[in-house]
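Continuing the series of single-chain predictions for the mutant panel. This is the parent chain; the variants come on the following pages.
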Amino acid sequence: MRSEGFWERLDETLQPPAPIPPGDSWSAAPDLLLYLVEQIRSRRPSLIIEVGSGTSTLWLATAMRTFGIPGRVVSLEHDLDYHAQNAREVERLGLGDIAQVRLAPLEQHTIQGETWSWYAEAAWRDLSGCGLLFVDGPPGWTAPLARCPAVPLLAGTLTPGAVVVLDDYDRDEEQAVAARWSQQHPTWTLERLTHRKGTAALHLPGAEPS
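Parent structure:
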């Protein structure tokens, strides 16, 4: 199916109150967005954590509203301009009661003796009960294996049966990141999805959140 068809399905399924822009080349592709929407519909997570904000923030929050899920989307964003832009879009669509874009500058974290540049702890340390973790940042140019800290630092927020979704799995670095996560959590199941830019979904054992 061409991209236009995926966008049409998103619009038909969610019927946003105002047009949602398709985003730029960094944004999540529409086939991945449809997968995320279906995960939201079936899992009904009370909390979605999104690592790296964008138009996906708007679609995730719109899905929560459309399906009547009493939850929220918290998106972490290190770039000041992107933070301001996406926060404005959240308000334009009337999603401020569901979605929050948190400014989270990159800072140094030490994980098992390795030092990483990742989102400021102050932006996420209060979070818990996450049923869907969507990892689409930081950008690869910020550091080697830039997205790797997401699971070591946020695993404690995840509920039994949660899912971790990693974008850009067609890239070697993201494959290495997912491999590390699988080694760290051998009971998790890794699923590779043939989306336009590649997607990895890691499923945690246990009952899915209701």
